[in-house]
């Protein structure tokens, strides 16, 4: 594997772009990241929940066996590398709304593959191997590390300034690159090379709230979720799901809906601190898009992580970095050359 290092331009510094940059650098590539740092990008307005269980059907999440042996260690190693703290492992309390739901979870908890994940807790269920990535803190730590080595540019990427050269290189603002990787989230709909990939964008609201004397040792979930932060009595509350919505404008009725749900779940008074909304790059078939353009072979895409991005990156970013560096094959479910 003595491949010559490549010079890679990454467009977008959300979860996909940031983890990919670190993986490519680890493989001795030269990396430049460009991002306009929009405050409402989906990675920057994300709870970062890591959850191995899909509630519908009460089953293990897609690629569980690839992701959940390594996801927390993956981010702990990055904490050490970046000298920051951003990954937290704690259980989730799944509160059941009726007897049928409770019985379904109990029954599924007896299945061997689910037994290690689900434990009865009174009328409810504890889900193990859950946690939270403080996404914003991770992104900021990564940006700081990249800036120290002049590998981060804070500006809007201009598609029309990309020059394809006869040598097979790509030029952007006077610099030469072997490949360009687009990690733009919903911004991909403006991308002239990859806007044919179908996305089903979902608008979502997250609240930062104060709840006095609520345990910060677990996530609480009953359709909506309440996630502890490092600050005493401060929690994240979410989320709404507005299909086909591309609006980043907050609506007070969404905040009131989430606050009322949290009051019902906890029986406590809740104080609103901040209301944020973003548009998630969800994909209709719910699998991410990774790979090279069918005609422009030095253009790649890494997108469509949706609401499970914090967990998926620990598996997909090393895979994508190997693909770019060594041309090793990717998982068939995500490789755009096979599925699109």
Description of the molecule:
The model has no long low-confidence stretch (mean pLDDT 93). Helices cover 28% and strands 28% of the residues. The protein has 3 domains: 163 residues, FAD/NAD(P)-binding domain, CATH 3.50.50; 83 residues, no CATH class; 79 residues, D-Amino Acid Oxidase, subunit A, domain 2 (D-Amino Acid Oxidase, Chain A, domain 2), CATH 3.30.9.10. It contains 9 helices and 23 strands. The longest helix is centred in the C-terminal third of the chain and has 18 residues. The chain is α+β, with helices and mostly antiparallel strands. Strand 13 and strand 14 form a beta hairpin. Strands 7, 8, 9, 16, 17, 18, 19, 20 and 21 form a 9-stranded mixed β-sheet that branches. A 6-stranded mixed β-sheet has the order 11-2-1-15-23-22. A 3-stranded antiparallel β-sheet has the order 3-10-6. Helix 1 crosses helix 6 and helix 1 packs across helix 8. The two termini are 29 Å apart.
Number of strands: 23
As a percent range, the share of helical residues equals 25-40%
Sheet with most strands: 9 strands, mixed
- What is the approximate shape? globular
Main structural class: alpha+beta
Averaged pLDDT, please?
93
């Amino acid at each position: 594997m003595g491949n010559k290092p490549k010079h890679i331009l990454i467009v977008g510094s959300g979860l996909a772009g940031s983890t990919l940059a670190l993986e490519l650098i680890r493989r001795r590539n030269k990396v430049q990241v460009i991002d306009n740092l929009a405050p409402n990008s989906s990675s920057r307005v994300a709870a970062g929940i890591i959850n191995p269980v899909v509630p519908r059907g009460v089953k293990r999440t897609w690629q569980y066996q690839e992701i959940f042996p390594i996801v927390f260690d993956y981010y702990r190693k990055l904490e050490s590398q970046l000298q920051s703290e951003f990954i937290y492992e704690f259980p989730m309390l799944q509160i059941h709304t009726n007897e049928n739901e409770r019985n379904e979870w109990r029954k599924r908890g007896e299945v061997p593959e689910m037994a290690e994940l689900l434990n009865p807790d009174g009328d409810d269920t504890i889900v193990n191997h859950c946690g939270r990535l403080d996404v914003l803190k991770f992104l900021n730590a990564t940006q700081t590390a990249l800036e120290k080595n002049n590998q981060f540019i804070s500006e809007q990427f201009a598609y029309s300034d990309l020059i394809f050269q006869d040598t097979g290189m790509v030029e952007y603002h006077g610099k030469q690159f072997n490949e360009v990787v687009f990690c733009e989230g919903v911004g991909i709909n403006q991308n002239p090379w990859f806007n044919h990939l179908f996305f089903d964008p979902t608008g979502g609201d997250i609240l930062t709230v104060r709840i006095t004397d609520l345990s910060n040792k677990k996530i609480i979930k009953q359709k909506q979720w309440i996630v502890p932060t490092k600050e005493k009595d401060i929690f994240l509350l979410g989320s709404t799901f507005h299909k086909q919505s591309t609006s980043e404008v907050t609506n007070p009725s969404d905040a009131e809906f989430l606050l009322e749900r949290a009051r019902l779940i906890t029986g406590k008074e809740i104080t609103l601190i901040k209301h944020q909304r973003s548009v998630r790059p969800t994909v209709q078939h719910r699998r991410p898009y990774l790979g090279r353009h069918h005609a422009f072979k030095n253009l790649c895409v890494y997108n469509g992580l949706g609401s499970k991005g914090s967990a998926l990156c620990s598996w997909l970013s090393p895979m994508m970095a190997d693909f770019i560096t060594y041309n090793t094959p990717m998982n068939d479910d995500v490789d755009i050359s096979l599925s699109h």
